[in-house]
Design brief:
Shape: elongated
Strand order of the largest sheet: 1-2-9-4-7
Oligomer: single chain
Largest sheet: 5 strands, antiparallel
Distance between the termini: 13 Å
Helix content: 10-25%
Number of strands: 10
Length: 153
C-alpha cells in the first residue's frame, strides 16, 4: 500500500513533465521512486508535510548508541514541530525551527520515533537525514555492517 506522501532520494528527482511523458500518475510515481530508492544509497529523504497530517519514522537503536539527524522545511512559509520520542513517548528532542540538527545518546533499547507536524496551513517539503551510530563518533554511517534501518510508521 502506498503512503500519502511521496518519498524520494535527492538523487532521484525527475521533473513532472518526464513522468507525464511516461504516462505515470502520482501513485505510480510514488511507487517508482520508492522502488528505485531501494536500490540507491541515499543520504536524505524528502516528503510533503501537509497540515494536520503528522509524519513519523522509527528506528530501533541499541543501548548506548546515538541517533543523529538533521532536517529542513521548505515552502511558501515554514512551520514545523519536530520531536524525537523514546520509551513511553518520552520526548528526547523538540524543535520548532524550520531547520535543525540533533545527536542523542540512547539510554533504553526501545523503538524511537522521529515525528514532523506542520504548524501552518500550507503544505511544505521536508528533507531529513536520520541514522543510528553505534559509537557516537559518526564513523558508522559509512560502515554497512553497522547500519540500522529507519522505517516509516
Amino acid at each position: 500500500k502506498l503512503n500519502r506522501s511521496s518519498f524520494h532520494s535527492s538523487s532521484l528527482r525527475v521533473p513532472g513533465t518526464a513522468w507525464a511523458a511516461m504516462g505515470l500518475g502520482a501513485r505510480a510515481r510514488s511507487a517508482a521512486l520508492l522502488a528505485a530508492g531501494l536500490f540507491v544509497e541515499c543520504q536524505g529523504l524528502f516528503f510533503e508535510l501537509k497540515a494536520g497530517v503528522p509524519e513519523c519514522f522509527k528506528a530501533s537503536p541499541g543501548h548506548g548508541h546515538y541517533l543523529h539527524g538533521s532536517y529542513e522545511a521548505d515552502g511558501p512559509s515554514e512551520g514545523v514541530v519536530v520531536t524525537l520520542k523514546g520509551a513511553s513517548e518520552k520526548e528526547m528532542y523538540r524543535n520548532v525551527e524550520p531547520s535543525g540538527r540533533f545527536s542523542i545518546e540512547v539510554t533504553e533499547e526501545v523503538p524511537h520515533k522521529l515525528c514532523f507536524a506542520s504548524s501552518i496551513s500550507d503544505s511544505q517539503m521536508v528533507s531529513f537525514n536520520f541514522h543510528v551510530d553505534e559509537h557516537g563518533d559518526g564513523t558508522d554511517s559509512h560502515d554497512k555492517s553497522h547500519q540500522e534501518y529507519v522505517t516509516k510508521e
